[in-house]
Amino acid sequence: MASSKKIAVFPAAGKLGTSFYTHLSQIVSPERLILISRHPEKISKSLTDAGAEVRKADYDAPESLNDVFEGASYLFLISYPSIQIDHRFNAHRQAINAALKTSPGIEHIFYTSLGFGGDGNPESKAYVMQAHLKTEAFLKSLVASKPSLTFTSIREGIYSETYTMYTSFIDLTDPSDSIRIPHDGSGPGIAWVKIDELGEASAKLVKEFTEDPTSSQYKNRIVILTGPKDYSFREVASILSKIAGKQIRVEQVTEEEHSTNPAVVKVMGADQGTAAAWTTVFGAVRAGENSVVNGELERLLGREAEGFETTVRKSLAEGTWVRR
Fold first, then answer.
1. Which label site among 114, 134, 285, 304 has the fewest CB atoms less than 10 Å from its CB?
2. 134-167, pLDDT tens digit by residue?
3. Angle 264-234-236 from CA coordinates, rounded to 5°
4. DSSP 189-224
5. What is the pLDDT of residues 27-36, one digit of tens each?
6. Which Pfam family, any one, appears in the UniProt record (predicted)?
7. Which domains does the chain have, with CATH numbers?
C-alpha cells in the first residue's frame, strides 16, 4: 500500500544523492519528499513544481539542522564527504540527533554507508570505513534504547567511476604503462557498481520499505549493494588496457611508495597522513571486503547491472569519471 508519510533526504546533493532523489521522485509522489541541501537553488524546479519541498541546511552548520527535518517520518541520510573519522562521524551524529527531536518523529533512518567490511562485518581494514562503522554502531545503540526507531545501513558498493582512486590515479587520456599499487593484482577484487544504479536501487529499496515497513527484510539490517562481478586488479588493468589501446600492468609497490606517489599526493593532498590513510583500502581489498556479489542490486533494479567496462567507457566519453 502506498504511504503518504514524508521522506527527508539530506543532503540532497552530490552524484549519489541527486541520483537517489531523482529516481525516488519517479516512483513515489514528489509531495512526500523533503529535499534538504546547502544549495537548494540547485534542485530542479520541476521537482518543486511537482510538490517536493526544498529546505536549506548544511552538515558544517549544525545550527541549520534545527527543525529542518520537521514533518518527516523517514530520513535518508547521505554520509558526510570526509576521510577524517571523528569529524565525519560527529557530522552524522549531529544530523541524526537533530532529526530525532522533530515532530511527528523519525520512524526509520536509511544511512548510506560504504562497501567495505563485506556483508555486515563490523570491522574493516580500510581507514575510510571507520566513520561508517561508528555511525552503524551508533544507529544500533539508538534502536536498542528507542523501540519506535529502526534503521537500514546501505553499504553502497565501490563506484565504477572512482576506478582512478584504486589504480594510482591513472589518466586514461594519457596513461602510464603501469598501475603502481600495494597489491599483487590477484583476487579477491572489487565488485564495482555504477553510481546511478546505486541511486536507483537505493530509491527502490526505500519505496519497498515504506510501503510495508512491518515485514521489510531491511529493518535493523546492514545491506550491501554491489555489482554483478568481482574484478581482480589484474582484470581491471586488462580492461583499462583495452580502453586505452595500450598495455597497462599492475606493478606492486610498498604502502609507503604508494602514499608518497606524486600522483596520489596530488589528489589526496600534500598531507602524507591522508594519502597513507587512503592506502589502507588495498589491505581491505586483499581481505575480500569488496568482493561480495549477492544479487540484491539487480533484484532491486529488475534488470542486469551495467558492467564495469561499459561504465568506465561512458564516464570517459562524458568526462564524468570521479577524480577523487
1. 304
2. 999 999 999 999 999 999 999 999 999 999 999 9
3. 65
4. -B--B-HHHHHHHHHHHHHHHHH-TTT-TTTTEEEE
5. 999 999 999 9
6. NmrA
7. 7-157+195-225 (3.40.50.720), 161-189+228-291+306-318 (3.90.25.10)
